[in-house]
Amino acid sequence: MLLRKSTMNGILAAILMTVAPGGACPQEPNITVKGYVLDSACAFLKNLEKPVSRDCALACAKAGSPLVILAADGTIYWPISSAMPATGQNSRLMKFAGQKVIANGKVFERSGSRALVIEKIEAAPASK
């Protein structure tokens, strides 16, 4: 009976370690990203360092191209929702299309892609 109880305690402990928050899953880091909001197709197909224009970014976004944030180092961040079912983020980014922004949130990385759950986003101050 004592062996059975210790075996059950061991199994319970193993289960709790795999499902407990912060146990087996690392916390995603909070980061600040500075970059341009542009449509994803231009970021890849035209290899742009910044948007062609606000109108161009808006036209592509309105046609369904997802907006992304292109950082100065060339990293592309895909804005995603933390809600399930997930929702598109274009409506949230439209007012920043073609502009430089500062965004803060949790970053997720997988196989070279980076996604950002935006907690705060604002237009970057104008460069002098």
Task: Give the secondary structure arrangement, pairings included.
Layout (H helix, E strand, L loop, with lengths): L1 H18 L10 E10 H6 L8 H9 L4 E5 L4 E4 L10 H4 L6 E11 L2 E11 L5
Parallel strand pairs: 3-5
Antiparallel strand pairs: 1-2, 1-4, 2-3, 4-5
Notable features of this structure?
5-stranded mixed β-barrel; 4 helices; 32% strand; globular; 128 residues; OB fold (Dihydrolipoamide Acetyltransferase, E2P); 5 strands; alpha+beta
Please, could you describe this protein's structure?
With 128 residues, this protein is an alpha+beta fold. The chain has helices spanning 2-19, 40-45, 54-62, 90-93, and strands at residues 30-39, 67-71, 76-79, 100-110, 113-123. It has a single domain, classed as OB fold (Dihydrolipoamide Acetyltransferase, E2P), CATH 2.40.50.
* Termini separation: 76 Å
What name does the CATH topology carry? OB fold (Dihydrolipoamide Acetyltransferase, E2P)
Give the class-level CATH name: Mainly Beta
Helix share of residues? Answer: 25-40%
**What structural class is derived from the secondary structure elements?**
alpha+beta
Q: Would you tell me the overall average pLDDT?
A: 84
Give me the number of helical elements: 4
Question: What is the subunit arrangement here?
Answer: single chain
Strand order of the largest sheet: 1-2-3-5-4
CATH architecture: Beta Barrel
